[in-house]
Amino acid sequence: MSTTTLAVLVPLLPFLGAVAGLLLGRTAPGFVKPLAVLPTLAAAVLAVLVAVRQGGGRAIDASTELTPTGSVPIELSLHLDGFAVLVAALVGLVATCVQLYSTAYLREDPRYPSYAALVSLFTSAMLLVVYSGDLMVLLVGWEIMGICSYFLVGHYWETEAARSASLKAFLVTKLGDVPFLIGLFALATDAGSFEITKILGTVAAGGLHHPTLIALLLLAGVAGKSAQFPLHTWLPDAMAGPTPVSALIHAATMVAAGVYFIARLLPVFTASSAALVVMAVMAAITMVGSGLAALAQDDIKRVLAYSTVGQLGYMIGALAVGDRGAAVFHLLSHGAFKALLFLGAGVIIHAAGTNSLAAMSRMDGLARRVPDAFWTMTIALLALAAIPPFAGFFSKEAVLVAAEQAAGGHSDVAPSAAGWTVLVSGLLTALLTAAYATRLWLMTFRGRGAAAPDHGREPLAMTGVLWLLAVPSIAFGLAARPLADWFDGKELTPTVTTSVLGTGTALVGVMLTWALWQRATARAAAGIRNGAAVPASVAAAESAAETPEVAEVTHEHPAVPAAPAPDPGRALLGPLHRHAADGFHLDAVYDRLFVRPVRAGASLVRFLDREVVDTYVRGAGTAPRLLGGLVRRAQTGNVQSYLSALLAGAVVLAIATAVLANVNAGS
Questions:
Q1: 566, 430, 396: which is closest to 507 by C-alpha?
Q2: Running DSSP on this structure, what letter comes out for residue 592?
Q3: Who contacts 46 (Cβ-Cβ below 8 Å, separation ≥6)?
Q4: What SS3 state is found at 47?
């Protein structure tokens, strides 16, 4: 079987599994789990086989015209280069892990059949985006992912939180998709084709007439899909969905699609220095802002959500300095350890009965209750904090090296301003990342108080997946040197300067957070001894991070002890804590700038429709009805009345005729 045929089967198998799962979910429930796992597993195996065959060599292209358009053709085409085959292998791996994990995590969920089918469709759409060589076909996968995310985030649709989160995710990403679609059409018009290879050829020949405008329009869509400032606010709220969905969205689909899109079309963006600077500023604000927000979150999943926003900022920053190899390297590394973090968080929520870090910090022995999650999440958090020799260290260093070279004026495409912006913000974010990773680990696994509930070992389908993902989280960084040949040939290995700066700032964040946690723990213990424990109602309110998922998948809900939670984030942020916990009030700003004016406009339109338009419509019917009523009264059925009226009318007409005749004669 040819490599092209195998590549076609990779997105096709999950799609067929999704269709079969939807058709057989109710009539043959015994087939639901095999239809969820086996097609996705087969697609993952085939994706790895395609990657092995492609081998980082020359790109493999195949295409056929999908439909004649009369102008710019739309083709069903594949473009298999080193970037595409490795990202597809990541998508297959993470999707398979999510499907396996979900069989245990949602084993009692009555809507599991539709959930599994949507996850398969989600996976198929992302694989279509990855392999597609035509922008219109890529757009199909891009939009299908948006629809799937709407249904999956709103899985617990009985609750207001899930309904609002799914609608917010859909609308915010669509807000970015409008300029994105305009940019795609403008790009295809200049290039005369939607095929990516032809577009890149046009860019190389200087054929783009409005490179800055096109790049900024496309960047708006990427900001929405990849949750970058200012369109990032949907992603933390999307934690209302099931945890395995969060792992899939954050690690290998949807948010990764925007980064991958820019990597595929990077020459379009490098054709405009202004677009690169805008991209660098967007990445810098996203990285630093999300790091500060993560330090103030109580929900363990919201901490990881803001972490994803920041790590995506690193990837966008690498693209802003013109190094797509570093960006995709971090995408692959991040995909492994972020999937591990979310799935590990699911195990913790499953066992602890809460997703509140404040509540977990009041539990003793949670690490002993879930040893698999403890060890694997420790590995993943070390990778997230970029501590050597874990995978995150090498991929994050690749980004910092690229930024350093651009800042020093050694980049052929990126201005030094973009390089300095990414480098400074990247180092600051390294400190913040290490700080919130340490805070999460301490508050989750080093709590003190009532004994954590003991429910025995978690299912193998959940814990086994964690150890599988722990392998690349540890060892993937060793692939930095050979991966350069799969990408553009640029070195991905760290330099001494960036290693010292990056690791040093990370260690400062770790030690500072540890010291502040020790102080907060001592103060909390002193408060308990002095009888200064907070009331139970206040403690419950402070740790009310519960989501619909908690009630669905946990064994029980332990009572939260009425005691202060030792939180080093409060000391680190100081007066910023309140604002950071609320995402710096961006939702409130958007509510006043956009939501309220739109609602006011809608209210005005509704008033005009009901009170003005409807009045005219009702009036148009009332006048004939009144006239008809008058005429109906004249229809008495009395012949004498009719004859009298006829005679009176004849007399009136005779008099009128005589008068008119006299008038005409006199004139």
A1: 430
A2: I
A3: 6, 7, 9, 10, 13, 92
A4: helix
Which region among 538-552, 613-627, 653-667 has the lowest average model confidence (pLDDT)? 538-552
pLDDT(397) > 80? yes
Beta strand 60-67 with 74-80 is antiparallel
Closest CA to 350 of 543, 107, 165, 160: 107
Instruction: Kindly list the distances between the CA atom of residue 363 and the CA atoms of 419, 451, 453, 481, 593, in Å, as whole numbers in the listed order.
Output: 45, 6, 9, 44, 42
Q: Which tokens belong to 182?
A: 């305009």
Position 469 confidence tier, pLDDT thresholds 50, 70, 90: very high
Is the C-alpha dihedral spanning 213, 217, 222, 224 positive or negative? Answer: positive
More confident residue, 449 or 410: 410
3-state secondary structure 484-517: HHHCCCCCCCCCHHHHHHHHHHHHHHHHHHHHHH
Bridge partners of residue 74, in order along the sequence: 67
- Residues paired with 356 in a beta bridge: 299
- Structure-token pair, residue 399: 């980004």
The residue ranking higher by pLDDT, 642 or 501, is: 501
Write down the pTM of the prediction: 0.88
Question: What residues contact residue 153 under an 8 Å CB cut-off, 6+ apart?
Answer: 162, 165, 166, 169, 238, 240, 241, 245
Percentage, residues of the chain above pLDDT 90: 61
Residue 542: is its pLDDT beyond 50? no
Residue-wise pLDDT for 416-438, tens only, equals 999 999 999 999 999 999 999 99
State whether residue 404 is helix, strand or coil.
helix
Residue 667, SS3? coil
Q: How far apart are CA 429 and CA 315, in angstroms?
A: 13
Mean pLDDT of 480-496: 86
Contact status, residue 137 vs residue 144, Cβ threshold 8 Å:
no
Question: Measured between alpha carbons, how far is 347 from 470 in angstroms, rounded to an integer?
Answer: 15
The type of residue at 584 is F
Query: How many CB atoms sit inside 10 A of residue 266's CB?
Result: 20
Q: What is the mean pLDDT of residues 286-300?
A: 94
Rounded-to-integer distance, Cα 119 and Cα 125, Å: 10
Question: CA neighbours within 13 Å on the CB side: how many for 104?
Answer: 17
Phi and psi torsions of 15, nearest 5°: -65, -45
The Cα–Cα gap between 56 and 257 comes to 21
Distance in angstroms (rounded) separating the CA atoms of residues 432 and 441:
14
Assigned token pair, 321: 């300095």
Mean per-residue pLDDT over the chain, rounded: 88
Distance, in Å, from the CA atom of 155 to the CA atom of 557, rounded to the nearest integer, reads: 21
Whether residue 457 has pLDDT greater than 70: yes
Rg (CA), the chain: 32
Region 520-526: what's the mean pLDDT? 79
Residue 573's CB is within 10 A of a number of other CB atoms, namely 19
Identify any residues that bridge with 299 across adjacent strands, giving them in sequence order: 356
Tokens 């939260």, residue located: 560
DSSP 603: H
CA distance 510 to 524: 21
Q: Name the helix (H) or strand (E) containing 64.
A: strand 60-67
Neighbours of 518 (CB within 10 A): 13
DSSP 240: G
Tell me how far apart the 2 most distant CA atoms of the chain are, in Å: 120
Q: What pLDDT score does 547 carry?
A: 56
5, 13, 42, 151, 350 from 39: Cα distances, Å = 16, 5, 5, 21, 27
